[in-house]
């Protein structure tokens, strides 16, 4: 019982082992080794057996519904089914890595390094974002990763009274994280936006909003401001319909790319091509910028927090332009509207009439990226 900690029932583990064990209530039906398994079943990862096995079990009585023998000795200490990809993800402690596995065949589809040393550990899927969360008995943080291995965040656990002891993870529907520990205790943790801010804003960090963490937290609000830039320039309301639901993904993009418009989403580089992001707390005011002789271009004031950073608002407005079908500004002249292909640090662009009239170039690689100067 999660409210009292009382044991309600018990049943024997399928193999009788509990040293390297992962547990998950299946969020969706799966096919495990050619056997259909309903949502709500218990997925058990057994990394202690000679050949590692994945079991699907009826939580009411412990009866085995399906078994997948991986045919190798990976030694996972945790495992989850990810409904978004349809794959299993296994947390290995030797080497410290995460394996992506086909639940029907057991084939390893991908591997990527864990963010820290594991030993005992936990793995969970966030119910809203679908991102992977990893914990370990060797680390005093829990980490958030995308399913392609991109590390997004690490949240310090010391402020919540935990010291390198995580042995298992599971999310509640409200986003609170349950963490079992090597001390025989289950913790209920807050890893939401406020926890991220508390754990990862150094004391000497100003309110500039130029950190990756703050950019990630503020991106949705700035997307609304970016949509408004297009509406202010004359975009019809029906044309803007759906823009606010645009998915934003954070990725380590190549070289100096700032953003890409790909797979129905805006991909933003985690550190703005090495420049760092500027997140404007008052995007409708632009008090950190001075307007130039042109109405579509602002430059950061010399003492502004936006100096030497890439303006996230401009980048989002640019990528929304691609989603609307606009290509880059004709001639790609620096500083021409929001659809110029380059953006310098400390610059802000507004949407122009020419941007509204822009047509798709037809070169997706060209049209989809925005590079700093």
Characterization of this structure:
The longest helix has 21 residues, at 212-232. It is elongated and about 75 Å long. It has 373 residues and is α+β, with helices and mostly antiparallel strands. It has helices spanning 193-200, 212-232, 237-240, 312-323, 353-357, 364-367; strands at residues 21-25, 30-32, 35-37, 42-46, 53-57, 64-69, 76-82, 87-93, 96-101, 108-113, 121-125, 132-136, 141-145, 151-156, 166-171, 177-181, 186-189, 247-251, 259-262, 265-269, 277-278, 289-291, 297-300, 310-311, 342-343, 347-349, 371-372.
- Percent helix: 10-25%
Number of distinct helices? 6
N-C termini distance = 57 Å
What value does the Rg take, in angstroms? 24 Å
Oligomer: single chain
| Largest β-sheet summary | 4 strands, antiparallel
**Secondary structural class:** alpha+beta
* Shape estimate: elongated
Overall residue-averaged pLDDT value? 82
* Uncertain stretches: 194-211, 331-335, 359-369
Strand order of the largest sheet: 1-4-5-6
Count of DSSP E strands? Answer: 27
Strand content: 25-35%
In short:
With 373 residues, the protein is of the alpha+beta class. The protein has six helices and 27 strands.
């Amino acid at each position: 019982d999660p409210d009292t900690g009382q044991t309600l029932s018990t049943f024997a583990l399928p193999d009788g082992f509990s040293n390297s064990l992962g547990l998950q209530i299946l969020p969706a039906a799966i096919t495990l080794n050619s056997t259909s398994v309903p949502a709500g079943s218990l997925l058990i990862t057994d990394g202690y057996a000679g050949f590692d096995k994945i079991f699907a079990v009826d939580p009411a009585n412990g009866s085995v519904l399906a078994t997948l023998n991986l045919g190798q000795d990976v030694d996972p200490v945790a495992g989850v089914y990810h409904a978004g990809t349809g794959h299993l993800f296994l947390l290995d402690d030797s080497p410290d890595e995460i394996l992506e596995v086909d639940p029907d065949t057991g084939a390893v589809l991908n591997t990527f390094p864990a963010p820290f040393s594991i030993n005992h550990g936990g793995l969970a899927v966030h119910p809203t974002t679908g991102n992977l969360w990893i914990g370990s008995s060797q680390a005093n943080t829990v980490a958030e990763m995308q399913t392609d291995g991109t590390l997004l965040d690490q949240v310090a656990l010391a402020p919540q009274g935990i010291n390198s002891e995580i042995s298992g993870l599971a999310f509640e529907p409200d986003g609170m994280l349950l963490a079992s520990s090597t001390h025989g205790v289950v913790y209920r943790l807050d890893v939401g936006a406020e926890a991220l801010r508390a754990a990862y804003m150094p004391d000497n960090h100003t309110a500039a909003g130029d950190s990756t963490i703050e950019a990630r937290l503020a991106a949705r609000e700035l997307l609304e401001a970016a949509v408004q830039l297009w509406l202010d320039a004359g975009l019809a309301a029906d044309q803007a319909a759906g823009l606010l639901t645009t998915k934003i993904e954070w990725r380590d993009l190549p070289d100096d790319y700032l953003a890409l418009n790909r797979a129905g989403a805006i991909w933003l580089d985690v550190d703005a091509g090495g420049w760092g992001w500027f997140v404007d707390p008052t995007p409708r005011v632009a008090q950190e910028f001075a307007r130039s002789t042109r109405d579509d271009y602002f430059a950061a004031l010399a003492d502004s927090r936006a100096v030497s950073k890439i303006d996230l608002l401009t980048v989002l407005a640019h990528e929304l332009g691609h989603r609307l079908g606009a290509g880059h500004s004709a001639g790609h002249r620096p500083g021409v509207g929001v659809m110029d292909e380059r953006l310098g640090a400390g610059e802000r662009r507004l949407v122009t009439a020419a941007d509204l009239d822009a047509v798709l170039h037809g070169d997706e690689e060209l049209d989809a990226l925005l590079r700093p100067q």
